[in-house]
Records
---
Amino acid sequence: MAMRLFARLIVVAAIILVSWLIYGTLSKYSMGEIATSIRQIPPGHLLTAVGFVFLSYFCLTFFDALAVRYVGRQLAYTQVAIASFTSLAIGHNVGGAALSSGAIRYRFYSRWGLNAEEVAKIILFCGVTVGLGLITLAGLCCLIMPAGAARIIGLSQTGVLIFGATCIAVSSGYVILAYFLKGSVRVFRWRFEMPSVPIAVCQLIVGTANFLCVSACLHQLLLAFGNPSFFDTATAYVSANAAALVSHVPGGLGVIEATVVFLLGSSASIGALIAFRAIYFFLPLPLGLISLSIAEFVVHRDDGRNLARKAKT
């Protein structure tokens, strides 16, 4: 009961905080500036960017699908997809994924029969998948386009190659560890096991695919104002995302934009970055809030019916 009450309070707080963040972000720009920035982007680039947003959130549903499989549960993909999209559409804007999107995940998964330990494992699993995706894409960018990565990061090409190889070694090491490590690690009263090798490989694939889609979305918008290469954009976005995670700023508000502008210089446009935040962060948000509201309404309705039945008996 206490956990349910806490989760409900987190949900209400998340909705309030998201509303405040939207107001705080948009108040920095006039509606004319935002509209002008988006109008400068050709419809083809804008629609392609929205398409990559859809693909990104589609990839993210497999984070949860793999996590549910990892904890040994079976749920319909539609259930997992709703829980994933709702929690991340809100969590991306609120920040602090373990708390914000984690609380929303708990609301969904607990009513489908998962206990607190299993939900905690799902949250940890998804966090690891995010990290693997960032590390793998960073390594690929450094190894495929070392000159561009060196210019953006500020290292020598040799340093970039070493860094890229280290990133790939870390992500590969995770799969190797999944093969050899068969035991479990105990944290307080919970036990965590490494996933099977197929699941670990799928984590690498969907984690990297997600960040490729997000980078492609940003790249399409930047092309309306300059001519940065895709791998330059991907390198800048991975760096910006890492900075946002370290800063703990909700939704990377301002951190992502500032980092991308700093790393790409004249190749980055604030107009493209405003459009990117609007498309990737704000566009899914109302849908996530609607999904959460409907889910909460259904739960309260069912609880009311159950209480009524008990009263009759």
---
Amino acid sequence: MRLTLLPALAGLLALGGCFGGGSVPDQLFTLSAAETRPAAAPRIAEPGQAITVADPTVPQALRTQRVPVYIDETSIQYLQDAQWVENPAALFGRLVGEVIAARTGRVVLDTAQYTNEPGTVLTGQLQRFGIDPTSMEAVALYDVAVANPTGGIRSNRFEARVPVAEVTPLAAAPALNQAANQIAEQVAAWVGGTPAS
């Protein structure tokens, strides 16, 4: 499944002043999981078998719906006429959870769904998620920590780089989606699966 660009609603255009005074682009970026779990396929998790995926924390550069362009190690600009439909951390977290569910067969929850039985908890920080114009790549860098219900924490870092032909919204959108999916697939393989009951 490819990343889609959502038509902006007229109501969002009217709220353009809420986004720093600029107008909302005609199309907004979102993320789409390359693999999804099938409908009408219930799963059951025994105590400790579920996995809860929290939205990643992000640095200040990603606490916006704008798309960063990493000029160098100390300079960031934002891609003109490009904006996420919502905070990229929420989009990224849901994509990671969906791919883990599709690839591992595990019951995957988000932090709003569990009560007393979160099972394994996956947290992380999305360090980078934007365009590197020097290498002409979309880049995603994700630090992950997994806390097991029996105790103990393990961590890992995952990176994906996808070529872009030009630094434009139309070129950036699918490349960022592909990079996010590559990270999600790496995380799913690292977390591993538990057979569904």
---
Amino acid sequence: MALGTLKYLSETNRSDVLVAGFDALDEAKQAIRTGALAVSIDQQAAEQGYLGVHYAVEALAGQQLPKETMVDTVVVDRKSLQ
């Protein structure tokens, strides 16, 4: 949705709005590099996938699994992309 918002703001010649996104897609990272997007959040999908498979293996082995697992998110901005 952030990329769509950026497109709308560009089409309406608005430059007075800071936009933040959630996903840190390649397109979002490029928009951050150009200054169009202020920040995005990286949900660390690879870590989520790894933990899902890891827990599946543990479950199949009869091991006790945590009731909840939190995966940290990372703020992606121009400084972190350098």
